[in-house]
Structure formats: C-alpha cells, structure tokens
Known about the structure:
By secondary structure, the chain is α+β, with helices and mostly antiparallel strands. 21% of the residues lie in helices and 45% in strands. The chain has one domain (2-122): Homing Intron 3 (I-Ppo) Encoded Endonuclease, Chain A. The longest helix is centred in the last third of the chain and has 13 residues, at 84-96.
Amino acid sequence: MREIVLNKGQVVLVDDIDYETVIQHKWVAIKYKGQYHAGKWDAERAGYVYMQWFLTGAKYPKIVEHKDGNALNNTRGNLQEKTYSEVCRRRNALIHHGTHIHAEYVITNNKKLVLLKKHCITT
C-alpha cells in the first residue's frame, strides 16, 4: 500500500500495483459533503473524476462504494462496484433494520448518481 499526498493536508491510499498509473496524474483533495475525495481534472468531461472511478473503470450507472466509508482509501480491497438497484436494496434493508443512512446526489452529464453513506446509528 502506498500513500499519495494531496493538497489541503490530505493523503490518499492506493495499492502498490496501481501506484505507477495513479502518480502520472495530478490529484487534488476535493471536499464533498464534509468528506475529502481524491480527484483529477478531466478537460474532456469538463469536470473532476474521482480516483475510485478512475481505478475501477466504472461507468454510469455503476456506483463505486468505499467499504470502510473512507473516501481516501482507494485500495482495491476497499472499492466495490454496485448497480443502483443493489445500492437501493441495501439501503432499504438498512432502513428496515433501523440503520440510518444519508444519500448524496452527484449530477454528471445530466444524469443523477446516488452515493450513500451509512451513519451506523441504530434505533
């Protein structure tokens, strides 16, 4: 596992196998809804691409989740691609089991992506 120092005093973790590919780009810390993500500017898309999307190659409508909830832990074992349906099923199961979650929305190319964060508060 390797560390990459970002701006704003943030550090992102990546696997050794991904390190050489990742350091070829300029990554910055992007704060979104109180949590930092690593992102790089993509002039073709006229926007930032989060590192988790870059590493997995996931495309809409796939969603990339961080298993441990730390958006700066981009090791392969921590990233998980899911479909929107899978995330909704998990969200509904969590709600029915008394766990509160918070949904975040990101608009990309006029399409809405849903990122979920589990607060782990049980009722």
